[in-house]
Amino acid sequence: MGSLIKMQARVTRVIRVAPLLLIAGFAACGTLACSRTALDSEDYAPFTAGVSPDAGAAGAPRDAGTPRDSGAARDSGAQDASSCTAHCEGALCGANDGCGGVCATGRCNAGEQCQNAVCVHSGALLLFGGSRKGSRQLADTWRFDETGWTELTGSAPPAKTWAALSRQGAAVMLLGDATGPRTLDDTWTFDGAHWLPIPGAAPHPSNRKNGALAPIGNDALLFGGFNPAYLNDTWRFDGTRWNPVSGVRPPARSGHALANLNGKVILFGGFDGRHPLDDTWSFDGSAWTPITSGGPAPRSALSMATLGDQVVLFGGNDGRNSFDDTWTFDGATWRKLDVQGPGARNAHAMASQGQRIILFGGQDITSDYGDTWAFDGTQWSELTLPSAPSARHYTTMAPIR
After folding, report:
1. Cβ density class 88-127: b for 16+ within 10 Å, e for less
2. What is the rounded distance in angstroms from the CA atom of residue 144 to the CA atom of residue 149?
3. pLDDT tens, 85-124?
4. Domains (ranges, CATH) in the chain?
5. pLDDT, tens digit (0-9, with 9 covering 90-100), for 172-207
6. Which one, of 104, 107, 99, lies nearest residue 117 by Cα?
7. pTM
């Protein structure tokens, strides 16, 4: 097993500011010489999302947008004009760019940056939902950053299993899933502080579960899934609407994985209703191309994430056994790594975080997992953390930024 990494708990918080209030604040400031007190809105009423289109009574949202705990207050003094200039958006606290990590809401704490004019953690990951053995579906939202796991509260989507999550521009988006025996087609975005439902204007993807999402440019790409047949449609979401993509595409499947690599989206594996799959495809923004290369054994319920100039694959299931192997793909060739890491599992979540990949959860035949692992390109290390989400499978995770 990899060496244990102990992380010290530090309480942080996200300043809760309604998007419209922020826009009005920026406009009112004119030159953006804003004061924190003008826009700080910790007492602002939480956003209340509507019921998702197909959720019915079970689809009522629950709270999931701000941390349960709060820490020391930020600098409450007014900032000068240079502190609030538009180019500070995305600036990391302490960066040598004249911003110092200052948002309209005040000066960011160490490790945070300006995102949508709100201070959020740089390199933070977002985890949502999943299922426990016994078919209990979950609707909790967690953030993972350098301090560890923090559960968030605020309005949120209904409980989801087999949902798909991806970064999309400056936000994170969540699509569909199965809620009980039903599948959903609802779309949500997370702006760093709040979950927001996106109206289901046509055209949009049909109800589905076990599809996959990945970022491409400023969009998110969706491929495949199941309901009640296996699907092979491709869609792009630009933050406002879904756009179908025509042309040659991979065979229908669910349980596959997608990851962005050098501006393209890589697809591997899945299940077509008869067999687990082992094919690799690349999407360049307009068309799918098959890649002929030896690689991992056929599998579904695997996970992939990007690490530098390669995609990392771990685990999965072939219908009989789960895997504990780690592979990398450089855009042309798969390579199996001789590393020891997490135990064999499937239906786990993986996401990129700076110079490492974070893995959480999953399942084997009898148990759910609630462990957190990091992979730096050469070795896996299990992280010892003061708190974490409960054990679960078919959860979903993506970078907040």
Report:
1. bebbbbeeeeebbbbbbbbbbbebbbbbbbbbbbbbbbbb
2. 5
3. 444 555 544 444 455 545 555 555 544 555 555 555 457 8
4. 5-61+70-120 (no CATH), 125-399 (2.120.10.80)
5. 666 665 555 555 667 888 887 888 888 776 788 888
6. 104
7. 0.71
